[in-house]
């Protein structure tokens, strides 16, 4: 039978845990806000770039560029974005599940991975995947320089024909409560789908531009930039999704701890009452026997 | 009919720096400075490392930005600048730019064959543009007094 003291200790310990989870929730909320702002701030550039690239490509009869060259898919490179830390609910488990789904779907192909994020790196290393590079501790503060480095590595491997296709697996931030797991083909650049073509754009595609540089040269500059912004976008999305998942998980943990404390307090009070009742009975019966 | 103003948008991968209605823009194209007035013929160009200047009205003081590589699209009533890096004059850390300039010069002056010559040249150009923009900005209040 647990004594009063045991209950007090348990309650204190749960309270301490609750304080930690609550603090983590607030930290994640702050980071989430920052990540969301960054993702939002990066959007105009991506949108304008896609527009310029699309209108340039529409003007070239048969665009030729190493990043457009499609080859039979035998050697696949996967850019796998996961969380940097744990305690984010099912965030890392979910994205890893997505990865193994992808792996099963591409069975028989040669798969190389570039993990971005520590949790994914650790898990994939245990699973025995071949790495073409790894980036850890880069998602807590997403930096365009890192995105550029990653895309340079990827585009170089692709241009040297060491790989035939590049996919990205990442969590897309939808709402605080939910993230969508997506698998996207990064290379070869097939068609530019990001953002719907608006009517105004369709009209502007008819305009005859003056090109200061030849079209294909311009396209050759725009394509790597496009890949970079795609990588940057996936990093920003994944980062926001991770913070959102952690915030939700910590909120649930804080709530749970509250419930546990409530239950324990109730129990403790019952035990205390039982002890008091017992003492009263003892006193009363003692008094009755002496009277 | 010619449009009367230009919608100028300057974006970098990290943020949108500017969205403004202006009367006149000067863009640092790779081939040289490009002056754009409302009604300019549609044009796409690569950017060099240089100064982007714009005026809100034909008679007002020009506002300048340091722009480092990227692309620009010009339409009769719009100018979209997709820069790798773009900074407002007041955002530039002059001391840091000076230090970068000194570093780049030192690298170029050394006889070390291991240095990446092109990168050092670009670093130097970048630093020079930043210094130029920051100085001009700091110089303006003095002149107006």
For this entry, give a set of tags.
heterodimer; A: 291 residues; alpha/beta; Pyruvate Kinase, Chain: A, domain 1; five-stranded mixed β-sheet; 6 helices; 12% strand; B: 145 residues; alpha+beta; ATP Synthase, domain 1; Single alpha-helices involved in coiled-coils or other helix-helix interfaces; 2 domains; seven-stranded mixed β-sheet; 7 strands; elongated
CATH homologous superfamily placement of the largest domain in chain B: F0F1 ATP synthase delta/epsilon subunit, N-terminal
C-alpha termini separation of chain A: 34 Å
Rg of chain A from C-alpha positions? Answer: 28 Å
CATH top level of the largest domain in chain B is Mainly Beta
The helix content of chain B is 25-40%
Number of separate helices of chain A: 6
Structural classification of chain B: alpha+beta
Query: Which pair of protein chains has the largest interface, and what are the residue counts?
Result: A-B, 27 and 22 residues
- Major sheet attributes of chain A: 5 strands, mixed
The number of helical segments of chain B is 2
Oligomeric category = heterodimer
CATH architecture descriptor text of the largest domain in chain B: Sandwich
Largest sheet of chain B: 7 strands, mixed
Question: Your description of this structure?
Answer:
The complex is a heterodimer of chains A (291) and B (145). The mean pLDDT of chain A is 87. The radius of gyration of chain A is 28 Å and the shape is elongated. Chain A has helices at residues 4-59, 91-105, 118-127, 144-159, 199-204, 215-290; strands spanning 75-81, 110-116, 130-131, 165-173, 179-187, 210-211. In chain A, helix 1 (4-59) packs antiparallel against helix 6 and helix 4 (144-159) packs across helix 6 (215-290). By secondary structure, chain A is an alpha/beta fold. In chain A, helix 3 (118-127) links the parallel strand 2 (110-116) and strand 3 (130-131). With 145 residues, chain B is α+β, with helices and mostly antiparallel strands. Chain B folds into two domains: 6-89, ATP Synthase, domain 1 (Sandwich); 93-138, ATP synthase delta/epsilon subunit, C-terminal domain (Single alpha-helices involved in coiled-coils or other helix-helix interfaces), CATH 1.20.5.440. Chain B is 30% helix and 42% strand. In chain B, a hairpin with a 4-residue loop joins strand 1 and strand 2 (16-22). In chain B, helix 1 runs antiparallel to helix 2 (117-144). The relative contact order of chain B is 0.17. The model of chain B is unreliable at 141-145 (pLDDT under 50). Strand 6 (210-211) of chain A pairs parallel with strand 5 of chain B.
């Amino acid at each position: 039978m647990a004594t009063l003291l045991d209950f007090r200790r348990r309650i204190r310990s749960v309270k301490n845990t609750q304080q930690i989870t609550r603090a983590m929730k607030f930290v994640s909320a702050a980071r989430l806000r920052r990540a969301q702002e960054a993702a939002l701030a990066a959007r105009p550039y991506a949108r304008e770039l896609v527009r310029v690239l699309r209108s340039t490509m529409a003007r070239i009869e048969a665009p030729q560029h190493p990043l457009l060259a499609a080859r039979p898919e035998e050697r696949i490179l996967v850019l796998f974005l996961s969380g940097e830390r744990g305690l984010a609910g099912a965030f890392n488990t979910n994205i890893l599940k997505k990865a193994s789904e992808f792996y099963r779907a591409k069975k028989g192909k040669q798969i190389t991975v570039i993990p971005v994020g520590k949790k994914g790196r650790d898990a994939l290393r245990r699973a025995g995947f071949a790495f073409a590079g790894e980036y850890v501790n880069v998602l807590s503060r997403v930096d365009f320089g890192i995105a550029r480095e990653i895309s340079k590595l990827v585009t170089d491997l692709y241009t040297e024909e060491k790989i035939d296709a590049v996919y990205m697996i990442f969590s897309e931030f939808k709402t605080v409560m939910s993230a969508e797991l997506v698998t996207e083909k990064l290379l070869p650049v097939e068609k530019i789908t990001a953002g719907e073509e608006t009517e105004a754009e369709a009209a502007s595609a008819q305009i005859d531009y003056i090109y200061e540089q030849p079209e294909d040269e311009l396209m050759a500059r725009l394509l790597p930039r496009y890949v970079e912004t795609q990588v940057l976008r996936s990093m920003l999305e994944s980062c926001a999704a991770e913070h959102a998942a952690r915030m939700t998980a910590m909120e649930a943990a804080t709530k749970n701890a509250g419930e546990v404390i409530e239950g324990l307090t109730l129990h403790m009070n019952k035990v205390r009452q039982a002890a008091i009742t017992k003492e009263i009975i003892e006193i009363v019966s003692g008094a009755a026997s002496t009277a | 009919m010619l449009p009367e103003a230009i919608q100028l948008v300057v974006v970098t991968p990290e943020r949108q720096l500017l969205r403004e209605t202006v009367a006149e823009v000067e863009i640092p194209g790779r081939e040289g400075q490009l002056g754009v007035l409302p009604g300019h013929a549609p044009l796409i160009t690569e950017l060099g490392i240089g100064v982007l200047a714009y005026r809100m009205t034909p008679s007002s003081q020009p506002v300048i930005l340091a722009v480092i590589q990227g692309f620009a699209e010009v339409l009769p009533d719009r100018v979209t600048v997709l820069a790798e890096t773009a900074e407002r004059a007041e955002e530039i850390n002059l001391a840091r730019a000076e230090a970068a300039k000194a570093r780049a010069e030192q690298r170029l002056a050394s006889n070390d064959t291991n240095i990446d010559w092109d990168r050092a040249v670009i670093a130097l150009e970048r630093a020079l543009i930043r210094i130029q923009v920051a100085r001009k900005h700091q110089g303006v209040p003095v002149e107006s007094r």
